[in-house]
Amino acid sequence: MEELTPLYEVNEALVAMGAEKLNLCMQCGMCAGSCPWRTVDGPFNIRRLIRMAQLGVEGYESDDILYGCTTCNKCVLKCPRGVTIIDIVKAMRAMIAETGAIPSVLKTATGSVHSKGNPWSEDREKRTAWMEGLDVPAFDNTKEYLLFVCCTSAYDPRSRNIAKAMVKVLSAAGVSFGVIGIEESCCAESMRKIGDEELFMKTAEKNIGLYSERGVKKVITTSPHCFYTFSKEYPELGSEFETVHYTKLLSDLLADGKLKLSGTVSKKVTYHDPCYLGRHSEIYDEPRSLISAVTDGNLVEMKRIKKESLCCGAGGGRLWMETKPEWRFSDLRIHEACDTGAAILATACPYCISMLEDSRKTTNKEDQIEIKDIAELVAEVI
C-alpha cells in the first residue's frame, strides 16, 4: 500500500486543483472518439490522458500529449457521466506549470502577458496601433459599451482588419461605444488553459479593477475566447459588467433596423463555427443570420457544423505552438469549405482566422477561397 501513496497523492492534488470529476470517468472512450485528433491520427488521446491522471502516472508532459488538447469542448458534450474534461486537462497543466516545465513557446506567451499585457511579445504602447487613421472614440462613462479588441486583433496585422471593421459597423449603427486602449491587458483565457492559474487571476483582477474604475457596464468582444472568459469566469472574481459577442449585438441591431445594409456580397459563403462561440457559448444562429442577410441567403453549410463543427486547432494555447502539417485540423476545414463551392469561408474568431489563413496557403487554396471575419463581411455592405 505504501507504493500507492504517491499515486494517490497525485490524484488528490489534481482533484484539489479543479479536476473534481476526474474519478467519475469510467473509460468508455466517448471522449477520444469525438476528439478532433482522431481525424488526423495524431498522438493525443484524451481517454489515455485521463487514465494517466487517475493513476497518477507521469510522462504526459510532452507538447503533443498534455498540451495537445485544444479545449474544443466536444468531448465534454459527449461524456455520458458529465466529466468536466477540460478542467482535468487544466489541472494537469497547472501542476506542470508549478514546476516551470511548460513548453518553452508557451513560456514566451505567458511571460509576455505578465510583462507586457499581451501574449505576442509586443510593447503595450502598440496595442492601439490598429487605430491609426481611424476616428475611434475613447471610452468614458457616457458610452454604453466598451469595445474590447482582443490581443490578436490588436497586434496581428491580418486580424487588425477585424477591429477596424468593428469600428466602421458600430459607428454606422449608431452604437455608443469607446475603447480604453493601452491600459487594458489580455483577457488571459488562454493563459488559464495553458495552466498558469496565478497569471490568469492576476490579469483578470487587474482588468476587473480597471473596468470598475472606468465605469464599464457593458463590453463588446471581438473574440469568442474573451467573450467566454468575461461572461463565465470573470463573474466568479467579482466582475459585474455584461458581455456580448459582436455577432449577437449586430444580429439584434439588424433585426431592430438599426444596422442597415446598402447591398449584398454576391458570392457563396460558408461558415466555420468557432469552438468558444459555438460549443462553449451556444451561439450558433446569430452568425448565420448575419451571413444570410449579407449574402441575401447565399449561405452554404459544410458537413460538420454547430456542435459537430471541426476545431481549427488554436485553442488551449495551441495557437502559439507548432503543429505538424499532417495534424492540422484547419487544413481539413479548408478542404471541407472548398467542397461546398463557397468562395468565402467566414468565421467569427481571430484565432480561427489565423489558423484558416495559414491553412489556405499550405493547402494551396489561395485562389479558390477567401477567409473573412463576419465583421469584415458586414463592413463591406454598409
Automatic annotation (TrEMBL):
Residues 15-45 form the 4Fe-4S ferredoxin-type domain. The keyword Coiled coil does not apply. It holds the Pfam family CCG. One of its GO terms (cellular component) is plasma membrane. InterPro entries: 4Fe4S_Fe-S-bd, 4Fe4S_Fe_S_CS, Cys_rich_dom, HdrC_iron-sulfur_subunit, Helical_ferredxn. PROSITE patterns: 4FE4S_FER_1, 4FE4S_FER_2. Keywords: 4Fe-4S, Iron, Iron-sulfur, Metal-binding, Oxidoreductase. One of its GO terms (molecular function) is metal ion binding. This is CoB--CoM heterodisulfide reductase iron-sulfur subunit D family protein. The lineage of its organism: Bacteria, Pseudomonadati, Thermodesulfobacteriota, Desulfobacteria, Desulfobacterales.
